[in-house]
What does this fold into?
Amino acid sequence: GAGVSQSPSNKVTEKGKDVELRCDPISGHTALYWYRQSLGQGLEFLIYFQGNSAPDKSGLPSDRFSAERTGGSVSTLTIQRTQQEDSAVYLCASSLALAGRARDYEQYFGPGTRLTVT
Amino acid sequence: QKEVEQDPGPLSVPEGAIVSLNCTYSNSAFQYFMWYRQYSRKGPELLMYTYSSGNKEDGRFTAQVDKSSKYISLFIRDSQPSDSATYLCAMVATGAGSYQLTFGKGTKLSVIP
It folds into this structure.
């Protein structure tokens, strides 16, 4: 089956502009996550969605970052008034559920969107 | 102290060598342990997972967990140039309908032909 897809694969934008990054999770996966990965750094958790529950936004670095998930499937991460420090790879992942089975915690990642703010 | 510590490397080995990658952790609540492999300019892909102490083998890969020492390892036998990638450990703590997934920073591995 299809994996997690993300678009665009690359995005170059000018400082101060808004950008939208899209994620299509694996069909049937109820949990969706956004991470940021800067050069040489590990994965920085941003936000996650689980079914219809309120999202966990605890990782969002500032109020310029927001995300939504429509219909329990596709998600969009929006960065307003981009800054140069926002340049990174933005990764989306999905997993089955939080049903308590070990395999439910396995996250499957998309290829990422490489964002460059000039 | 960070919850998960992983030596970033880089680690360079000759083809055919046995590779040992490690993570230590401080949170006793971690129950599930995973290893991800990330090729350059790609998203991480799940390599192995385990939820108990001991060894789990899959082909040339062996994942080892020692909960008493809070130490996990990934061994790669007969390493190949195609194994060159960054390897990230990940750990899950669960409770009260939620869970916490924490990644290590990753170890960059190069296997030289």
